[in-house]
C-alpha cells in the first residue's frame, strides 16, 4: 500500500485549478447532459433503413454526425443494416486514411498514483501491486530496445498521477527518449514521435510539455456518465473531479498543444452512452477550437491484479457490441484516427481492423521496465492490466501486409506543420491520404531493411510493389521525386519524407 506523504498530499491539493475549467462551462454545467443523451437514445429507436442509409451517406461525405444521428445508428437492430454500417465504416477509413495502419508501443514509466480508481491495478490502496518509477537511465534502456531492436518510431508514454511523475519528470523522460539513436542493420533506430498519456494538467504545465516536444496529449474520460464516474473515482482524490478531467484537452489546446486524443474505458457503463459521450466531446472541441480529437480510443476493461470491480461490473462489452461501437464511432467522427490496443486478443484485432482502425500497438509490454529486463511473460503484479495480444511487431506487420494493409512509421506531418487545424482540414477533405501513402511506403521500406525477418520482408515487398504502382498511376506528378527518395532509402539514407 502506498502511504501518501505530507508533501504528496499537499501536491494533490494544489493540482486542480477550478478557474481553468469553470470558464468553459455554461451556467455551471458541462457539455455532457446525461438526461439529454438518454432522451436521444430513447427517441431514435427502431429507425427505418432509409433513415440509417441517409446518415451513412452523410458519414461518407466526411461530416461529423449530430447526436440524434449517432443515436439512430446505435439503435439499429437489423443484422443486414449492421453489415451496411460495417462496410461504410471501412469505406470512410479508406477515403480518409487509405490502407495505412500506424504502429506504436506504450512505454509505462511509473506506476505510482495518488488516485484510487476501483477498476485500476495502480490504485493507491492496491497492496499487491509492485510500484516503481523508471530512472532516466532506465528510460534510455527501454527506448534502446523499442527503437533499436524492435524498430518502433512512435511511443506513447504512460504515467500514474503522483508528484514523482509530474510535468518535470514527464519532460525529462521525453527528452531522454528523443536523445536515443541506435545502429540498425542498414540505418538506425530512433523514436520520432512521443505521445503522452498522463493526468490532466494546468495550462502552465502543458505549455512546458509543448516546449519540450510533446506529441499528441491523450486523456481518457474513462466514463462520461456522471453518477458512474463518481462511483468509480473515489471522493477526495484528484480524479474524482469530473470537470477537471473533462476539460483537460480544452486546456491543452489553449496551451498550444496541437493534437489531443480522447477515449472511454468500455465496461464501466452502458457502451451506447459512452459512444454518445465521445461524440459530444469531439463536437465541443471542434466548436470551441476548430480542432477535434486527433484520435479516439475505446479500450475494454481487462483483468488486473486484486481488482474485483472488473469481474463485478454488469456493463461488460461483448465482441459483437465491440464491433458495433467501433463502426459507429468511425461513422460519427469520420476524420479522426481510431486506436485499437493490445488489450484485445489477436483474433479480435484482425476482425475489427477493417471497421476503420488507423493505429495499433505491437510488441507491447506494460510492466514497468519490462522491455529491457528480459522478462518474456506478463507479470500481473507489476502491470496495470493483462494484455490480450503479446505478438511481436514483426508478426503483426506480416499479418497486416497479408491482409493488404501497409504499416506506416511516418511522422512527417507533425514536422511539416500538418497538425492542429491544418491536419483537420486535410483529413475532412480526404486529402491527407496521399501524403500518408507515399510516406508510408518510404518508412515501411526503412523498417523492412532495418528490422524485418526474412519472411516478413518477402510479404512486405510484395505489398510495396502494389503501393508503388498505385502511386505511379494515381499521382504521376510526385512519382519521380518519390522514386528518388525510395532509391536513396534503399541505399541507406533515412527519414526522407514529403
Largest sheet data: 8 strands, parallel, barrel
Radius of gyration: 22 Å
Average per-residue pLDDT, rounded, comes to 93
Straight-line distance between termini: 51 Å
Sheet-strand content, in percent, reads 5-15%
- Output the number of helix runs: 22
Features:
alpha/beta; 498 residues; single chain; two-stranded antiparallel sheet; 8-stranded parallel β-barrel
Topology summary:
Blueprint lengths: L5 H10 L3 H4 L11 H10 L5 H12 L6 H8 L4 H19 L2 E11 L25 H15 L3 E6 L7 H13 L2 E2 L4 E2 L3 E5 L5 H10 L4 E2 L7 H7 L9 H5 L1 H7 L5 E4 L7 H19 L5 E3 L11 H4 L6 H14 L4 E4 L5 H7 L6 E3 L31 H10 L3 E3 L3 H4 L4 H9 L3 H19 L3 H21 L4 H12 L8
Parallel strand pairs: 1-2, 1-10, 1-11, 2-5, 5-6, 6-7, 7-8, 8-9, 9-10
Antiparallel strand pairs: 3-4
Helix pairs in contact: 3-5, 3-13, 4-6, 5-13, 5-15, 6-15, 6-20, 7-8, 8-9, 13-15, 17-21, 20-21, 20-22
